């Protein structure tokens, strides 16, 4: 891995945008002899990209061999994402191999409901599936009726869509799938969501997929359903403490940082995604080891430190979705006790009949802290609210 990484970094260094990052660290590509050295390079952010695109058309990233311009939604605007012909080929190849590990073959009929224009999602899946030789139906987003009408004709065996739309289609009678590939929304990170969609499709294989416009793909599950495997021949993933930027150990929760290993136009180099996950290593039967076992469970935008642990309210959201007696609405109150310790109280909206012990256990597992008090209430005003009374 280090060899491929160093080759990519040497190529990046030829470009002023990346050279500036090396200069900031007082380094040159040849100084990078280990991952420790690599970790001295400053991060790249969406603000960096915005600044580049504001100062120059295509941010100075345009090259003669670019053949495609997609966009990434970024805060208030759009960031162009450039791909050379070779970039598209590499992306298609790594996706094809990931889909193969997911159990898809050339005999499958694949229906894709992601958008094909402006954004890259639809094309990303399409290219990989075509490379695999599968029969791809580029449906794009649209009405349920139209999707069902076409499904009736082509009898898809693989569906690629966001999980909520998949559930809707299942509810309207879509069946016969061998596998479902989920993207665009939290899936395996949501308690009980995988089982729900799996049941709706009579036990079809559930594949979670993770990528973003700036870097596609990042991780994809295999047919053994053991969690998102990092596509480690295409991207190097680090998990960092969003506060300090320190690289965290495997098993620790933090922000996902990605570095392209094989990209010509606009490669990401220690790019801060703002997504939260964790990485673990285990031997999966498919041969992959590096895994994000709990998927992507939130964004770094909102974070509180409670009892010395980082508390991400978005995680609470995912836990509550696993309990049908609860609506998902919550109010978290953080206080300080007289002794000076933190006190976390969580109010959740729903029925008193919910299994309190199971709820407590699920919260503790996800948040890594036990709330001091959990109250079930009939009604909450807001969907989610965090009240920090400590300061
Ligand atoms: Zn696997």
Describe it:
The structure is a single chain. This protein folds into 2 domains: 81-299, ANL, N-terminal domain (Rossmann fold), CATH 3.40.50.12780; 304-388, ANL, C-terminal domain (GMP Synthetase, Chain A, domain 3, 2-Layer Sandwich). The model has no long low-confidence stretch (mean pLDDT 94). Helix 10 packs antiparallel against helix 11 (356-367). The chain contains 11 helices and 21 strands. It has helices at 2-12, 16-24, 35-38, 46-55, 85-101, 121-132, 144-154, 163-171, 193-200, 313-320, 356-367; strands at 66-74, 77-84, 109-112, 135-138, 158-161, 179-182, 205-212, 215-220, 228-230, 235-240, 254-260, 271-277, 280-281, 290-292, 298-299, 304-306, 309-311, 326-336, 342-350, 373-377, 384-388. 38% of the residues are buried. A 9-stranded mixed sheet has the order 4-3-5-6-7-8-9-14-13, with helices on both faces. It has a 4-stranded antiparallel sheet with strand order 10-11-12-15. It is 28% helix and 29% strand. With 391 residues, it is of the alpha/beta class. The structure holds zinc ion. Zinc ion binds next to loops.
Number of domains: 2
| Helix percentage | 25-40%
CATH class of the largest domain: Alpha Beta
What is the rounded Rg? 22 Å
CATH architecture of the largest domain: 3-Layer(aba) Sandwich
Structural class category: alpha/beta
Distance between the termini: 46 Å
């Amino acid at each position: 891995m280090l060899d491929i990484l160093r080759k990519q970094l040497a190529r990046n260094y030829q470009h002023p945008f990346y050279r500036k990052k090396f200069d900031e660290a007082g380094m040159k590509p040849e100084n990078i002899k280990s991952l420790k050295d690599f970790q001295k390079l400053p991060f790249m952010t969406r603000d960096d990209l915005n600044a580049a695109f504001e100062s120059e058309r295509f941010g100075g990233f345009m090259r003669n061999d670019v053949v495609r311009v997609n966009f990434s939604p970024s805060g208030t605007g759009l960031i162009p994402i450039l791909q050379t012909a070779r970039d598209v080929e590499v992306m298609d190849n790594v996706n094809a191999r990931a889909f193969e590990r997911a159990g898809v073959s050339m005999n499958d009929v694949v229906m894709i409901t992601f958008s094909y224009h402006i954004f890259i999602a639809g094309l990303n899946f399409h290219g990989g599936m075509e490379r695999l030789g599968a029969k791809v139906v580029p449906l794009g987003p649209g009405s349920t009726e139209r999707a069902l009408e076409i499904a009736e004709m082509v009898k898809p065996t693989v569906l690629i869509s966001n999980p909520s739309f998949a559930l809707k289609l299942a509810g309207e009678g879509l069946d016969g799938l061998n596998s479902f590939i989920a993207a665009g929304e939290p899936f395996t990170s949501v308690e009980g969501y995988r089982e729900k969609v799996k049941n709706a499709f009579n036990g079809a294989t559930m594949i979670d997929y993770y990528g973003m416009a700036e870097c596609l793909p990042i991780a994809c599950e295999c047919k053994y359903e053991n969690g998102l495997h990092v596509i480690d021949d295409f991207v190097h993933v680090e998990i960092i403490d969003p506060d300090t930027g320190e690289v965290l150990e495997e098993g620790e929760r933090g922000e996902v940082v990605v570095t392209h290993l094989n990209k010509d136009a606009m490669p990401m180099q220690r790019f801060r995604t703002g997504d939260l996950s964790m990485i673990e290593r285990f031997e999966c039967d498919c041969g992959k080891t590096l895994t994000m076992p709990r998927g992507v469970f939130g964004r770094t935008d909102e974070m509180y430190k409670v009892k010395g642990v980082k508390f991400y309210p978005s995680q609470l959201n995912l836990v509550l979705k696993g309990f049908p007696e609860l609506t998902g609405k919550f109010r978290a109150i953080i206080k300080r006790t007289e002794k000076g310790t933190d006190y976390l109280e969580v109010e959740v909206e729903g029925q008193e009949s919910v299994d309190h012990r199971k709820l407590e256990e699920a919260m503790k597992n996800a948040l890594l802290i036990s709330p001091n008090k959990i109250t079930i209430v009939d009604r909450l005003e807001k969907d989610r609210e965090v009240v920090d009374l400590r300061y």
